[in-house]
Amino acid sequence: MIANRSIPDATVMPELAYPDVTEAADWLCDAFGFSVRLRIGNHRAQLVYGDGAMIVIELGDAAAPRADSLTHAMLVRVEDADLHHEQASRAGARILSPPTDYPYGERQYTAADLGGHVWTFSQSIADVDPASWGGEVPR
Fold it and tell me: Is the pTM of this model over 0.85?
């Protein structure tokens, strides 16, 4: 797998949604000992703990989770997003977004599983400095 400064080295990363990403990331760091790896505007933050990682994502306009709000998702790093996408499609996964290259050096697609859970599969395609696309690495 290509190393990419724009994504943690972890293979599987839960994505948890909160109404205020900055507040949630700071709280998770203070309460549970995570460290902020990267902030992406005020809508995403990558947190690390040991060799694990998680991503705090924006819940949206809701003050609290609703039944129709995304409150969690999974991000899984894969060797080949296109091959993985083909396998998932054949198995009946509902594809929410096709494989797409992003400026942060990842090729990703998103699918829903049979329970409606959202999964993003990400292939590193380049090592990209987060500052080049607006990411902020805390010092």
Answer: no
